[in-house]
Amino acid sequence: MPRVETVEDPEDPRLADYREIRDAERRRRDGTFIAEGRQVVRRLLGAARYRVRSALVTPPALDALGPALMAAGVPVFMVRQAIVEAVVGMEFHHGCLAAGERGPEPSAQDVLGELRSDRVVILEGLGDSSNVGAMFRNALAFGVGAVFLAPGTADPLYRKAIRVSSGATVAMPFARLEDWPRDLGLLRAAGYTILALTPREEAVSLSELGDGRPLPGRLALLLGTEGRGLSDTALAAADLQVRIPMAPEMDSLNVAAAGAVALHWLQKR
Predict the structure, then answer these.
(1) Rounded to an integer, what distance in angstroms lies between the CA atom of residue 113 and that of residue 2?
(2) pLDDT in tens, 149-188
(3) Is the sign of the CA dihedral 201, 232, 122, 31 positive or negative?
(4) Is the distance from CB of 43 to CB of 23 less than 8 angstroms?
(5) Is pLDDT at 269 greater than 70 in this prediction?
(6) Looking at the predicted structure, is the pLDDT value of residue 146 above 90?
């Protein structure tokens, strides 16, 4: 069983994984990611999707997470709060980090083959890490089985996306759709109806689904970036365009808010 090692020198080579945590390119190059905070680390340990290299904790965080880290066989480095901040190079209040290994990403076919949910989310061109993290959090909250990433979507394992998602990005299966939008055919072949969320007036109101219009059994909710929204290509490739009815004073919502509303409505009724 791994033991807890106390580290007093911020230059200690054992802490190398925790330097430059804001450097996304380094993380991709090293094949690692950083989880921050007790809740996120707990979710990472519980998901068991990724190998956890080590954890960097202060004494209070060790009191809270020690049993879970030991049970998972994770090497633990205990440091003072000042050492944490010296290593990461910025003010940091969580007192707990874990370094995970990305490993090979599963293909869309792999993820679809393991799905046990009739709801999935597709993100197109969502370049903001906060919005990606928020959508993963929404997806986990509303029983979505997986998230599929079209080109231009930010890395779900970037530290900001992980943090905003409350760890949902390390728990939720995801895969990239490289041949866009042709790869939508993979989901359609698996029985999913592709619903493109858009504020366009000609789109069908979500309030009609499950009421005046049958709600398909398997649904893939397609969302685009704020501003321009979904591309014309994606809209044309969807099976149905849907919109959220709202007051005339406002024509759209933040993408994460819109996604949450839509996922709540599209839950089985």
Answers:
(1) 35
(2) 999 999 999 999 999 999 999 999 999 999 999 999 999 9
(3) negative
(4) no
(5) no
(6) yes
Alpha-carbon span 269 to 261, nearest angstrom = 15
Largest CA distance in the chain: 66
Give me the amino acid identity at 232. Answer: D
pLDDT reported for residue 24: 85
Instruction: Please report, as a single letter, which amino acid is at residue 222.
Output: L
Contact 130, 166 (CB under 8 A): no
The reported pTM is 0.93
**At CB < 8 A and 24+ separation, what contacts does 178-186 make?**
178/151, 180/124, 180/150, 180/151, 180/233, 180/234, 181/150, 181/233, 181/234, 181/237, 183/108, 183/148, 184/122, 184/220, 184/237, 184/238, 186/108, 186/109, 186/112
| Cβ neighbours of 22 (radius 10 Å) | 13
- Rounded to whole angstroms, the Cα distance separating 33 from 116 reads 27
SS (H, E, C) the chain: CCCEEECCCCCCHHHHHHCCCCCHHHHHHHCEEEEECHHHHHHHHHHCCCEEEEEEECHHHHHHHHHHHHHCCCCEEECCHHHHHHHHCCCCCCCEEEEEECCCCCCHHHHHHHCCCCEEEEEECCCCHHHHHHHHHHHHHCCCCEEEECCCCCCCCCHHHHHHCCCHHHHCCEEECCCCCCCHHHHHHCCCEEEEECCCCCCEEHHHECCCECCCCCEEEEEEECCCECCHHHHHHCCEEEECCCCCCCCCCCHHHHHHHHHHHCCCC
